[in-house]
Amino acid sequence: MINLSQRGDVDVAFNMLSSFEFILILHMMKEIMGISDCLFQALQKQSQYIQNIMQLVCSTKILIQKLREDGWQNLLKDMIFFCDHDIDILDFNSTYVACNGCSQH
Fold first, then answer.
1. Averaged confidence pLDDT in the chain
2. Which DSSP state fits 92?
3. Residue 50 phi, psi (nearest 5)
4. Model confidence pTM above 0.85
């Protein structure tokens, strides 16, 4: 049986997990982990030559930089499509105020 305190905790956790910010972070992590997966798998193999690893490091760095510079539009399209199910989408042109009460914009 769930008491009122636990119910409040569940409601808060649900609201946080269904927020646009949380889902955006998850999608960014998915993209970055997908880019770096080849490098991580190669690093786990003991038979890799240092030159191959260095090439993978360089290509991973380039892909992450490309995501940083050019990947936002595709990421936002994916986010808007994903959040079309009862999740409020943020207006990126509005003023941002930090949740901790600070008046940082």
1. 76
2. T
3. -60, -35
4. no
